[in-house]
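User: Show me sequence and structure for the first protein, then do the same for the second.

Assistant: Starting with the first protein.
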Amino acid sequence: MKKKKIIVTVLALAAALAVCSCHKKDYLDEQGLEITPQGEYTFMTSMNDGSEDKGEFEMIGSVSISEKKSPDMDGFKEVSAVFKSDYRNLPEGLKMTQWFAAFDRYTGTSFESSVDEVFDNGVAEKWITIEDDGKKTDARLMYTFENDKESRIMTTTVTVICPEDYDGTVFSIGYGDLEISAKCADTDFSKGPYKLHEMPGNEIHDHDYLYFTAGGK
């Protein structure tokens, strides 16, 4: 009987250890950030006349995330989030601002490496190396923008180029204003990598930010 109790105790301990090892505490847990399902969303952001902010309005949008093998690099893939922003409710003569980000879910490291490519379609100037539990992962960011002024729909595609076995990409969208834009312009991203909460936009946590992953978890 005693042997059975010992065996049961050992098996229970092994099961508990297995459960603990499967759930790795990450940056999302530490910051209390929740993943939003892909699809339609809304959030409040600012509008401006180019020189000063003119209040807030509700941004209506949608996002879809896909993965494909990199056409240029063996062993790498492209994880792309396509954001469609509907600004038909924006008053004539005003502009809207929104903040995009992509980061590593385990460490919170942002994939931004240069401010220049953010405002000019293209690929980031350098790779970001993420270190987590002794493992190094190289990743690179790419942005493309398309603004359909007739339909008043802006399409922003944020792509992370990373190893095929990497599963840590998180995309974010949310509140932006002229102050955040100015901070972004003044930030030397080449001196990073920075954590998400160190970035110009996401350092303001009392505004709306949404977080998405390819798997929805």
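Switching to the second protein now.
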Amino acid sequence: MENLKAQTTMVLVILVIIIFTGLAVFLLSLSSTFNQDEYLNLYASNLLLAVLRADTGYSDADCRQVADLVACAYFVPTHRCDLTGPACGDIANATIAGHMERFDLIRKNFDYLFVVEPKDFISQTQIKIGNPDLDCDISDKGCASRQRFVVEEKIQKTAGRSVPFILNVRLILARRSSASRPPRQLV
């Protein structure tokens, strides 16, 4: 009888090990890993949101966050923040460029372009901040050779007589070609 008790315990231990191994394999098969393209799309999306929500330090309602600045720069580019400060358009250019320089991945490896345009109507007016060469058609051979990551965010603001407008803000990221990379500085 003692022999059977030891065998039963051993069978139960092996059965528990098999169940835990199967459970571990099942859970690992459910977890998916990001490939580099998915990671960069996620990075670009979060980068756009982080930049648009960043505080500018101005107390004027049209200049508090970068999203407010972008809308102000689109609708009234000559508006002065805090009445005596610089114009919205100038601050938007400097602020977005400054925020993009703070991210090492972008500064070292990528070119970027912010494009602001209206959503519901066709307009030739666009605000472009960054490398304008990135805003090209897919049929363009120079553009097709560079892998681009494009993310969009919408900003709803009122302009004029409290008419709501929706602006599309696109962030386009593309790896720098070796020819357009700035030379490395030796430290």
